[in-house]
């Protein structure tokens, strides 16, 4: 039987766990809203995900950030990149207890494609862990719901304004960290980006559901 706990209690318990050195890397998954100016439709909001090793800051101008599409399609196989969520997956929704599945396809070279399932999880130290499966069904770590952190940044570069707000949803304990995954994704999107690896959003195609940015 799966444990029933309040969102507040779950976060208090996992906050202690998150401070323990587990001799592994980790990354935090944030859901993000980005407001920017598109040259065709004007001001627009894109829904994204981002990965961080630590609590994000607003340092710099945001130009070198790596974003992953919040994908509406039901399957991220066959090279499709992005993050797909099933359940109560809105920006304002807590990750526990109503998110059911999170599929994360960050890059194809190397292949970073992982899925976590609530109903395949297990309880440990009063926390519900979701095994992190690769496409071969092998576990590459485990994730847990880990909210209670957010950021709000206003960035300006090359005369362009970009506003980003993010809320943490999960922490994944694995041998991979955010820098390693983000670097792989940055190299993969380079053909469709400028010299700094940041997509030219102002002229981007409006149908962007299957592409990483």
From TrEMBL:
Annotated stretches, region: Disordered: 186-213
Origin organism lineage: Eukaryota, Fungi, Dikarya, Ascomycota, Pezizomycotina
Ranges of Acidic residues composition bias in the record: 191-201
Source organism of this protein record: Pseudopithomyces chartarum
Keywords, sorted A to Z: Signal
Name of protein: Uncharacterized protein
Superkingdom: Eukaryota
Signal peptide limits: 1-25
């Amino acid at each position: 039987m799966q444990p029933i706990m309040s969102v507040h209690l779950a976060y208090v318990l996992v906050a202690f766990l998150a401070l323990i050195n587990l001799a592994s890397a980790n990354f935090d998954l944030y859901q993000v809203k980005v407001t920017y100016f598109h040259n065709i439709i004007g001001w627009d909001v894109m829904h994204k995900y981002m990965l961080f090793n630590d609590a994000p800051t607003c340092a710099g101008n945001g130009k070198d950030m790596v974003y992953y599409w919040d994908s509406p399609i039901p399957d991220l196989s066959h090279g499709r990149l992005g993050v797909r969520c099933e359940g109560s997956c809105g920006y304002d929704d807590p990750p526990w207890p109503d998110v059911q599945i999170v599929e994360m396809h960050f890059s194809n070279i190397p292949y970073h494609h992982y899925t976590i399932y609530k109903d395949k999880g297990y309880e440990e130290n009063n926390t519900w862990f979701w095994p992190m499966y690769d496409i071969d069904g092998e576990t590459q770590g485990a994730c847990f719901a880990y909210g209670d952190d957010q950021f709000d940044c206003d960035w300006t570069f090359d005369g362009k304004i970009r506003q980003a707000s993010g809320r943490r949803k999960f922490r994944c304990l694995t041998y991979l960290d955010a820098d390693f995954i983000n670097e792989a994704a940055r190299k993969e999107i380079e053909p469709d980006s400028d010299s700094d690896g940041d997509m030219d959003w102002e002229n981007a195609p409006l149908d962007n559901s299957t592409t990483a940015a």
